[in-house]
Amino acid sequence: MHVDGDLGGGDLSDLAVSALELLQWKEVEGAAALVAPLHTLLSALLPRLGSIAAPHGGDAADEDASGDEQEGRAGGAAAAAGSAAAGYASQLALLALRRLAPGGDAAAAVVARGALPEGFDVTLVLAVLAAAPDAALRNAALGLLESLARGAPEAMLGHVLEAMRLIQHSAATTDDSHSQAAAASALAAVVPAWVAAGRDAAELWASLVGALGAVRPHRRLALLATLLRALPQESGLPAALLVMLQRAAADAAAPKPAPKAAPKAATPKRGAKADKGQGREEGAEQLPEGPPEHEWLPELAAALCEQVPAAERLAALSSVLEASAAGQEPQRPLPRLAVIFATSQLKSKPLAAAARAESAAAAAAGAGMGAGADAGAAAAPVLAGCLSVMQQALLHLQLLHPTGGAEDDDDELLTLDERAGEADSAAALASPLQQQQPPKLSKKQRSVNAATRGLYGLLAALRDLMDPTEFLRALLEISDHPSEERRHCGRLRCSRPARRSRVSAPRGWAMRWRR
């Protein structure tokens, strides 16, 4: 099979292309012998790859061009034709290799699954994927990559991150459904090798989430859901939410760049070149800069949560709350964002409906109303998830107020409702000037106050989500737990003295559940 030839007006002979086309449907004896020549052909074509859809020939303006210009344009057209032929031949070679690869067509695969046959080169496939100029060639490379990953996952272990990067680039540069499906299939195929080797799934999530800014908004959730389905439960949603909230918190806390000065107007050009240049400039201006990550990442994380059942979602929220406060104070941006996100999830209608239904089933089972013991067992995951989220919220509160409510400095950490009540009672004694002066609090104190209000909002959402009996039982379970940390955390909430303290709940918080 010759790469160079005089036929067809390009760098590839028609005979070679015909042979590659024949391999797409014809069964060949001794097909294993074709693997090495096909790889050699791909290596030779790699430097000259061009788009299969590249336009050929000149336009009407060629008639007025000089002889030298016409010769130059003719040479450029011939080079474009050769480049397009190389791209088409590469696509055919990739498709033929996919049929021969482990995990390819059962009738044509030359080896069994689990081993990479001699001659197959994952690095070359990734190089073709990186250099592919159009969707057709890129999808063919993705298909071969998927077959190699499914048939020989051990061979993919050293290439997972590079494959993820190229798959994300493909998803960002093409928006048609077929290309997106090819990228999703390849993504799902390369992940098991990473998991089987015991690698950290957070690296995969960080790689994918970091590339979402270049992906069209309506395609982002599908990529996240594909990776979520390919990972085990413990390294799926919890790791994804933590990575997304970390990026959102870091983006929100990052200093905003100064606005760029408007570029100077260029001197107008004339002729066809000016029209083409103006078209490129207008096309560049039409690409809008997307919103910052902290505006759309939490919303995308919420949409990802809807892909899993209620019990799994609650378990993930508890894990995120625990991981967000690890090694840092709860009033820092990440723990506060995690609390806000968890509160919004607890208020979601699907989760509330699932919790109410399972709580009612558990109550019916406990009362012997015919639901049986299976209904109570079915409700256990949701109730256990609520209990776990409650425990993490109370632990956050204890980290904010380690003394458990000291009497000193009470006025510095009052809740918002208490401040409003004291302001009303002292309004008659305060002068207009004093009324206009807000209390002076340090930045840390304001952060602690905001974090405390957020945690009480989280507990209020739990109270509204759970049955009142289950809510009180959960508080008692935490207060009576053998663990000293959990017991002290529960006692901090359940055995509250009547006096005002540093962690007093907002007025009316403990009474609404009784109604």
Automatic annotation (TrEMBL):
Residues 272-283 have a biased composition (Basic and acidic residues). GO terms for molecular function: snoRNA binding. Residues 60-69 have a biased composition (Acidic residues). InterPro entries: UTP10. Residues 56-76, 252-293 are annotated as: Disordered. Residues 252-269 have a biased composition (Low complexity). One of its GO terms (cellular component) is 90S preribosome. It comes from the Eukaryota. One of its GO terms (biological process) is maturation of SSU-rRNA from tricistronic rRNA transcript (SSU-rRNA, 5.8S rRNA, LSU-rRNA). PANTHER family: BAP28, HEAT REPEAT-CONTAINING PROTEIN 1. This is Uncharacterized protein. It comes from Monoraphidium neglectum. The lineage of its organism: Eukaryota, Viridiplantae, Chlorophyta, core chlorophytes, Chlorophyceae.
